[in-house]
Amino acid sequence: MTTQEKINKVVLAYSGGLDTSIILKWLEVTYGCEVVTFTADLGQEEELEPARQKAEMMGIKQIFIEDLREEFVRDYVFPMFRANTVYEGQYLLGTSIARPLIAKRQIEIAHEVGADAVCHGATGKGNDQVRFELGYYACDPAIKVIAPWRIWDYASREDLIRFAEQNQIPVPKDKRGEAPFSCDANLLHTSSEGKLLEDPMVEAPEYVYQRTISPEAAPEQPTYITIAFEKGDAVAIDGVAMTPAVLLKKLNDLGRDNGIGRLDLVENRFVGMKSRGIYETPGGTILLEAHRGIEQITLDRGAAHLKDELMPRYAELIYNGFWFSPEREMLQALIDHSQEKVTGNVRLKLYKGSATCVGRESPYSLYSEEHVTFEKDSVYDQRDATGFIKLNALRLRLLNKDRASKL
Questions:
Q1: Quick check: is 325 catalytic?
Q2: Which of 104, 140, 354, 385 is least surrounded by Cβ atoms within 10 Å, i.e. has the fewest?
Q3: What's the pLDDT tens digit per position in 72-85?
Q4: From the candidates 41, 52, 182, 184, which is the catalytic residue?
């Protein structure tokens, strides 16, 4: 939309930082509208009360600060992990999976307060603008969306700081210069990108990592834990039942202390360019290894292989912002059905950057030691393999029947 359209009230996704504070004031100046702020607690481990104080200082009357951690893990992270989801073979989608929840709640607030528009602070180069806006339109096809970075004429940090000073927006000293890199965080991960990280040949300095110690500094002795699953979701650690958010926080702590979950990735953005990101997903890395471990003994081969074939498509839908699409929901129904008997315990070894499944058990285990043993058994006739192999080889033999005569 343009700055010419009439806006009466807008709900702004507000962090309390300098950029969204500038956007807040810009909305008031540009549209002459009332601004409502919405700040979501997704476990980013930042004090959110300053966001309230900043909004109040700027004259905002309707301020929403909401703890969405349990909903985030229960309804978004866990369903995604049931599919063992990774984008381009490595990325655990920590930023991507948070956007649909923020978008959904932002639209709900817009309806509650009678707003006719919503606003986000994502730039015109990244994926988040797509994710937010696809979420907005899926939840309210008629909503007006304001994306300042695609509208205003500000081209530099200096322009923004000048606007802030002209409008009495406090600019902390550490925000006056260019930040060395940008960060996004929630309960699942921390991502860092831009500036000093833009050269993909240069190793990220240690101070970039905020959520994990280095594997070299991790303990010399391994840590063993047992994760219990019910229908594909983790429900307890070492016999202690936990809510989804509390459980993920515990896994984050274990991953941090053992240097687990670091990723240096050059990925393909939906908008067409490649970007380099430094990701830390300590708890998610452990959870993925554990979930694959319990599936190894509870999923039939056909079901497991089908899931693995569908997963890249499912991951791409989430990465590109199509959480609320019918095809993602169809895939989710299939994935959730596959998890009916994914129940049991997984034992993991955490050691210097790695999480390794070293044991698994389930009341629904399909593993038969009697069938697989190298010792004598009474359930498997090895002679049956002769016919099995011959039937599978038949088409190959017919296809290549002339080859033998040419040898």
A1: no
A2: 385
A3: 999 999 999 999 99
A4: 182
pLDDT at 303: 97
- List the catalytic residue out of 21, 69, 96, 99: 99
Given 128, 276, 338, 360, which residue is catalytic?
128
Percentage, residues of the chain above pLDDT 70: 96
Residues 276, 134, 109, 144, CA torsion sign: positive
Q: Which CATH superfamily, name and number, covers 183-361?
A: Argininosuccinate synthetase, chain A, domain 2 (3.90.1260.10)
Per the annotation, the verdict on 378 as an active-site residue is no
Contact in structure between 259 and 353 (CB atoms under 8 Å): yes
pTM of the entire predicted model: 0.93
**3-class DSSP string for 335-386:** HHHHCCCCCEEEEEEEECCEEEEEEEECCCCCCCHHHHCCCCCCCCCCCHHH
Structurally, what CATH architecture does the domain formed by 9-68+89-178 represent? 3-Layer(aba) Sandwich (3.40)
Spell out a b/e string for 231-263, using b for 16 or more CB atoms within 10 Å of the CB, else e. Answer: ebbbbebeeeebebbebbbbbbebbbbbbbbbb
Q: Where in the chain is the domain with CATH 3.90.1260.10?
A: 183-361
Q: Is 99 a catalytic residue?
A: yes
At residue 160, the pLDDT reads 85
Whole-angstrom distance, CA of residue 185 vs CA of residue 43: 8
pLDDT at 47: 80
What 8-state DSSP symbol labels residue 73? I
Distances (CA, A) of 59 to 18, 30, 55, 56, 110: 16, 16, 6, 5, 19
Pairing of strands 117-119, 9-13: parallel
Residue 340 identity:
E
Q: Is 128 a catalytic residue?
A: yes
Predicted confidence band at 173 (pLDDT cuts at 50, 70, 90)? low
pLDDT for res 1:
64
Q: At residue 177, does pLDDT exceed 60?
A: no
> 284: closest CA among 62, 43, 3?
43
Where do you find CATH 3.40.50.620 in the chain? 9-68+89-178
